[in-house]
Design a protein that fits this description.
The chain is mainly beta and 186 residues long. The chain has a single domain, classed as Allene oxide cyclase-like (AOC barrel-like), CATH 2.40.480.10. Helices cover 9% and strands 48% of the residues. The termini are far apart. The chain binds 2-acetamido-2-deoxy-beta-D-glucopyranose (NAG).
Length: 186
């Protein structure tokens, strides 16, 4: 009996000790994951309003708060955005959706942001939203964020979106590839 209690306790400790950050790769092999019911790729373009040369005329995001002086990694800086989403990498392609929300630098000893936003589809192809939350450590080659829900054509959707940085063309423009995998589709 004592041994059993100890085992349960150890198991609990393991659970508590396991890394929970969504951006970290899983120790589990992905072959244990279910197959996505829907998969697609979109590109995110962020054009930050700024003081330096703005090679891309129309800004789509704005820094609301300056960084605090806690550390050197923009800690506390909050950016609100209404960014165009395209099907290919070209910023000037017709937008497939809009990404509306914010990211905030929330790590004291490295560059990392928390993304909270809604992808809004209002085209002949799709109407609805996908709602996304997750940590985006900028140095990692790819980052997994959670698709926590959806509406309209994406009613009750859930899944994972993987970010990879495709370009940083000035301090005021970056482009992400967003690889969507939905595991709940209706
Ligand atoms: C969606 O697009 C239609 C047609 O362009 C427009 O009338 C409507 O206001 C848009 N809705 C939203 C929520 O943007």
């Amino acid at each position: 009996m004592k041994a059993l209690v100890l085992m349960v306790f150890c198991f609990f400790l393991l659970l508590v000790a396991s890394p929970s950050a969504s951006a970290l790769p899983s120790k589990k092999s992905s072959k244990f994951y279910p197959k996505p019911c829907k998969q697609f790729v979109l590109y995110y373009h962020d054009i930050l309003f700024g003081r330096t040369r703005n090679i891309l005329s129309n800004s789509t995001s704005y820094r609301i708060t300056n960084a605090t002086n806690l550390g050197n990694y923009q800690f506390g800086s909050l950016i609100v955005f209404d960014d165009p989403i395209t099907k290919d990498e070209n910023l000037r392609s017709p937008p497939a959706a809009a990404a509306q929300g914010l990211y905030v630098y929330d790590m004291r000893n490295d560059y990392s942001t928390l993304f909270v936003f809604s992808l809004i589809f209002n085209s002949t192809e799709h109407k609805g939203t996908l709602n996304i939350v997750g940590s985006d450590p900028l140095g990692a080659p790819s980052r997994d964020l959670s698709i926590v829900g959806g509406t309209g054509d994406f009613f009750m959707a859930r899944g994972i979106v993987t970010f990879t940085t495709k370009a940083i063309e000035s301090i005021e423009y970056f482009r992400l590839k967003m690889d969507f995998k939905l595991y709940e589709c209706y």
